[in-house]
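Standup notes
- DV: blocked on the single-chain target, sequence here:
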Amino acid sequence: MSGHSKWSQIKRKKGKADQERGRLFGKLIREITIAARDGGGAPDGNPRLRAAIQTAKDNAMPASNIERAIKKGTGELPGTSYEEHSYEGYAPGGVALIIDVLTDNKNRTTSEIRHTFTRAGGNMGENGCVSWMFEERGSILVDRKVCDEDAIIEVAAEAGALDVNTEADDVYEVLTRPGDLHQVARFLDKKSIPHHDVRQTKVPTTTVLLDRDTAGKVLKLIEALEEQDDTQNVWANFDIPDEIMASLTSAA
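- DV (later): unblocked, structure below
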């Protein structure tokens, strides 16, 4: 399982109490705004916007917030001008990290990301230093309570998905080619299989196995990066043994 998926599993077990609703909504609004700006305000013809809206709905964002974010992206309402950037570097233990941001001030964001790396014992590198270790994929989550493992694997194969990640305790992760993401999601709809978190992701081609001490340091750095308002996603290439994973989630 990719490092980001491991981190997401820990966050789900920690619960909503850690997640500041305002910050989460701010990140989602930025993504909707950028998606509407770049691909238009009609979700049916804009896969990125459709995914962003679905994620917002999954997180109980009011429809009025979604509508305003779309209108800011299309220029119907005034709004802040955001730019997309990615940063790359290494966490403790040689773990590769990619950080995707949406920012209205690149200089400020670069300084904040660099400071976060340094403070946590990591190193920010040049663009391209770790991105070759990841592949672009589409990702769809299906709760385990919805169906059994054999059923989701069969349906995913029929839909044209590449693989189903079954390592997480509470969800299956259906992985697709980037361009097939929404086609597969629509097929799950057709089969009446509820799903959520439909989005583009980065899957590592190789992973670093972490001991408990290093895992704690890596997760602390990722958490600090994700707490920054400009950060949209953090991708990592670590793996954590099950017994260490269990101790981390119980301590969280």
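- Follow-up: The chain has a mean pLDDT of 88.
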